[in-house]
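Ligand-bound model needed. adenosine-5'-triphosphate.
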Amino acid sequence: MTQQTDQFKKVISHAKEYGFVFPSSEIYDGLSAVYDYAQNGAALKNNIREYWWKSMVQLHENIVGIDAAIFMHPTTWKASGHVDAFNDPLIDNKVSKKRYRADVLVEEYVAKIEGKIEKEIEKASKRFGADFDEAQFRATNPRVLANQEKAASILKRLGQSLEKEDLADVRALIEELEISCPETGSRDWTDVKQFNLMFGTKLGASADTAMDLYLRPETAQGIFVNFLNVQKTGRMKLPFGIAQTGKAFRNEIVARQFIFRMREFEQMEMQFFIPPGTQKEWYERWKEDRLKWHLALGMGKENYRFHDHEKLAHYADAASDIEFRFPFGFKELEGIHSRTDFDLSSHEKYTGKKLQYFDPERNENYTPYVVETSIGLDRMFLAVFSNSLVEEELEGGTSRTVLKFPFALAPNKAAVLPLVKKDGLPELARTIVEELKWDLQTVYDEKDAVGRRYRRQDALGTPFCITVDHQSLEDQTVTLRERDSMEQIRIAIADLKTTIQDQVSITTLLKKL
Ligand code: ATP
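Prediction:
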C-alpha cells in the first residue's frame, strides 16, 4: 500500500470510529457516495460554515446572505446552461464494465507524471542539502523539463478537445497514452459519451400535470434569480455580493474518494455583482482574499496552489481553482470564476424581465458582471480533517493520534476531567462545565484513567483539557492542558473562560484575515 492510500484509509476509519462521518443508511449497507455527518462531524461542519459565513457577511458591509430553495422553476436550468451543457464525458471499460470520467483518467495520468517530478526534486534536495535551489532545478534539469512539457501538452490537448466537444479525440488520447482500467488493466474502451449530471424529480401528484424538476446542481442560481429582489429591498449599490450556503446535487459518474466527490453535498457560494469592465480587477482581488481565508487556518502555505483553467465553463471568461494537498494529491477545493453577465443576461432572455442596475456614477443602466467564489463545505471538511490527523511519536516509545484542528473549528473546545470519581471532584468539575457551557462547547468525561482521557480528547481534536484534582478543592485552581504541545499550566478556575476563549473563538480566527 502506498503511503498516500494508507493515510487516506486512516482518515476514513478515524472519521467513522470517532463519530465524524458515517456512510448514509449504513444498516442497509450504505448508499454510494452519500454520507451522514455524525455528532462531531456536524459540529466541525457548522464551525467551518460559520467561519465562511461570518468572513463574508459579517465582515463585509456590502455582502448579504440569503437562503434560497433547493427546488427552482425548471426553466432556470435551461437558462443557466445546465440542461444542455452540464455534462461529464464518460467512458466504459468493456472488460471490467466499470465507468470512468474520461477527463479524470487523463488527469490521473498527468498526476503520475507530476508525482515523478516531485520525486526527482525530493531526491535532488536530499543530495544537495541546504544549497538546493528548487526553482533552478525545475528550470534546468532535463528529466524534469521533459516531464513538465509532457504533462502540459497532454492537459492542453485535453482542454482543447473538451472545449471543441471532440470526444473522439479524448478517446484517441486515452489510447495513445495507453491508459488502462485502474481495476483490471484492460485497455478495451468504449467511445466517450456525454452524461448530464442533474437529478430529475417531479412536482405534483397526478402523472399528467406533474412538472419535471431538477434538484439544484449548484446554489448560485438561487442567487441570480433573486438579484433584483435583494438589490432593491437591501438598497444595495454595486459592487455588492450575495452569499449563500446550501445543498447541491450531482449524479457524479465517478463518486469515489469519500466525501471529496459526493452525490449530495453542500456549497458555500458568493456572487459578487460588479460593473462591466472591472471583472479582471475583482477576480484577482477575490483570488487573493479567498487564499487568505484558507491560510488564516494555519494548515501550511505549501498545501495550497492556484490552478488557472485552460478549459473554461460555458459561463466564464476566467477561472481558477484553489487546489489543496489532499491525501491523494493536489485537487480542487474552491473555484473562483469570472462569470461575466452570462447568468443574469440569460435569465433576462428566458423571462423577458430586465435584471439591470442603474449606476448613478456612470448614469446608465446595465446588466452587472459577476465574480463568484464557490467552495464545497464537505471538501473543506475533508481538507481540514485529513490535514489535522497526525500520528505522533512520544518520548518513551509510545505514540498518540491527534486531530490538530485549527482551534476555532474544533467540535469541542474544552473537556473537563475530574482526576478521580470521588472526594467531591466530579461535583466541582460539573460546576466548571456549567460555567463554561454558555460560551464554549464543553464536555465532561470521568471514565478511565486521566491519561487515557487525554488521548481520547486528542483523537477528537479538543484543544483544551481541564483537570480537577484535590488541590482544586483547596485553592480553586485546575490544570489546563493544551492539545498540541501537551503543556500543562496551573490556572484559576475564574480565568478559564477568557483564557480558552481568546484562543478558540471564531472571532480570533476572523481577526487574522
Ligand atoms: P470537480 O471538477 O471536482 O467536479 P467542479 O469544477 O465541477 O468540481 P464547481 O462546479 O466549480 O466544481 O463547484 C464548486 C465547488 O463545489 C468545488 O470547488 C467543490 O469544492 C465543490 N463540489 C463540486 N462537486 C462536488 C461533489 N460532487 N462533492 C463534493 N463537493 C463538490
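The chain has a mean pLDDT of 94.
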